[in-house]
Write a structure and sequence with these properties.
Blueprint (H helix, E strand, L loop, with lengths): L1 H9 L5 H19 L2 E4 L1 H16 L11 E5 L26 H9 L2 E6 L33 H8 L5 E5 L6 H7 L2 E4 L20 E5 L2 H11 L29 E4 L1 H5 L3 H16 L3 E4 L8 H16 L31 H12 L2 H14 L5 H21 L5 E5 L15 H5 L6 H6 L3 E11 L2 E11 L4 H12 L2
Parallel strand pairs: 2-3, 2-4, 7-8, 7-9
Antiparallel strand pairs: 1-3, 4-6, 5-6, 5-10, 9-11, 10-11
């Protein structure tokens, strides 16, 4: 899709300005039902589009992303634009600088349509935890788009953006990509800079592309990846044009399959995944049964490590330096009684966070603070980190025999809005196939593999490929081969 639009631009069949206005027209008509965007950046987008058009008029060469409109998850900072992370506590926060990925997109001449909805501070699996209301799945408005990058995936699925950026901490790009029938990729930890991303769980967070096709995802990944002096965790990896590796060839590729994963699936989901495996067999890939003995600890380890890092990272939202502040001058949000005015610094902290943070965010802060507290650190956090090491070793061993591992992305298609909001454990189990890639730091991609009938609707389902550290090119090659079948 991106290459098609690029060719139309350089052949002067369309202009970037008109293309951008067409997207805004669709957003105005469709997004009131879907609610994928929190903030539109029309002036910025048209300015960027006009620059691309000027270059084309002058006969200058333009890059693949130049003049192509996309969307940005609202926990990624854009200078001068509101950055809320879908939380009341940052409702009026205006980012004073660009995230590195935004600088890279600007260098490539990309057009940014706006900021998309998410679960508050990227905590959730459904985009129902947003302080501004839930995003809805374009395939069925009664169902969730997945989370936390639900706004970005819904925008791409509904053709309200040609590509988008999301963040993935435990599956937050891949799970909604599967639910919305698009491609979503979590790169290797360190492949893409985290500078300018509103931090949630720093050892797990990673920025990645969401797109209609594997090729489009590869083009966006090429634009945003690379070493960044502002992020010490970004890797010294050679910049690559990932779209050049999409040969369609899988012969000889060794793909690992975890039998326990397939056996745990409902019949209709398992059949879709088995068809994917059969396709790769026919194309000459070698299917290997893979064992990951410690992967059963991935979900519980994740839901200790992630809340602990949340507890630390979100301590900065205290009503003092930036964001919302509930103090003597503004207590109307929490009380109509003047006798309840906060009188101490501690009360300002409590009242600001009580009003400004949502229920799921508070839950994870409390879980993390408890796990890190004196007497419990060794019992919870330290043991979770030991489990993480064992899981990494499982993958190291598995990748000695297999080039990549194939799994489902999710255990089922998109669930109904409100279906799991009262049961956090059921919601957390949505991440059962995706958290392992974040725990181990490996790259992973979700690709659509058909639809499953749910009532009167047919809903998308996806499969996941997990690859070796910094081997995105082979992961994309194999994913692209299935997509082009």
């Amino acid at each position: 899709m991106i290459k098609d639009l690029h060719n139309k631009l350089i052949n002067k069949e369309i202009t970037s300005e008109q293309l951008t206005l067409d997207y805004f027209d669709r957003i105005s008509k469709k997004d009131k039902d879907i609610f994928s965007y929190l903030t539109l950046t029309k002036d910025l987008a048209l300015e960027q589009a006009k620059k691309a058009d000027e270059k084309i008029k002058k006969g200058e060469k333009i890059g693949l992303l130049e003049g192509i409109p996309g969307a940005i998850k609202d926990n990624i900072c854009i200078n001068g634009i509101r950055a809320t992370a879908a939380s009341k506590i940052l409702d009026s926060y205006i980012a004073p600088y660009n995230a590195t990925v935004i600088d890279k997109l600007n260098e490539k001449g990309a057009v940014i349509l706006g900021k998309t909805n998410l679960d508050e501070f990227a905590m959730g699996s459904s985009t129902e935890n947003s302080a501004y209301g839930p995003t809805k799945n374009p395939h069925d408005l009664n169902r969730v788009p997945g989370g936390t990058s639900g706004g970005s995936t819904a925008a791409v699925a509904a053709d309200l953006a040609s590509w988008a950026l999301g963040t993935d901490t435990g599956g937050s790009i891949r799970q909604p990509a599967a639910f919305c029938g698009v491609v979503g990729m979590k790169p290797t930890y360190g492949r893409v800079s985290r500078h300018g991303i509103i931090a949630m769980a720093s050892s797990l967070d990673q920025v990645g592309p969401i797109a209609k096709t594997v090729e489009d995802a590869a083009i966006v990944l090429s634009a945003i990846s690379g070493r960044d002096k502002h992020d010490a965790t970004s890797a010294h990896s050679q910049d690559k044009n990932y779209e050049e590796f999409l040969t369609g060839e899988v012969r000889g590729t060794k793909i690992g399959v975890v039998k326990e994963y397939l056996n745990s699936l409902e019949k209709n989901v398992r059949e879709k995944i088995e068809k994917v495996i059969e396709f790769y067999k026919k194309e000459g890939a070698k299917i290997i049964e893979t064992e990951l003995p410690h992967v059963k600890y991935a979900l519980p380890a994740y839901y200790i490590i992630q809340p602990c890092e949340v507890s630390s990272n979100l301590a900065r939202y205290d009503g003092i330096k930036y964001g919302l502040r509930i103090d003597d001058g503004d207590n109307s949000a929490i009380s109509g009684n003047s006798s309840d005015l906060p009188k101490t610094l501690l009360e300002t902290y409590f009242d600001t966070r009580q009003y400004g943070l949502g229920r799921e965010t508070k839950r994870r802060i409390m879980l993390g603070t408890y796990a890190l507290s004196s007497g419990y650190y060794e019992a919870y956090y330290l043991r979770a980190q030991k489990a993480r090491t064992l899981i990494k070793k499982d993958f190291e061993k598995a990748f000695k025999e297999a080039d990549m591992i194939l799994t489902p992305t999710t255990p089922s298609p998109a669930f109904r809005l409100g279906e799991k909001t009262e049961d956090p454990l059921k919601m957390y189990l949505e991440d059962i196939f995706t958290v392992t890639a974040n725990i181990a730091g490996i790259p992973a991609i979700s690709v659509p593999c058909g639809r499953i009938k749910e009532g009167k609707k047919e809903l998308p389902i996806g499969f996941q490929l997990m690859g070796k550290w910094f081997d995105e090119e082979n992961l994309l090659r194999v994913a692209d081969a299935y997509e082009k079948k």
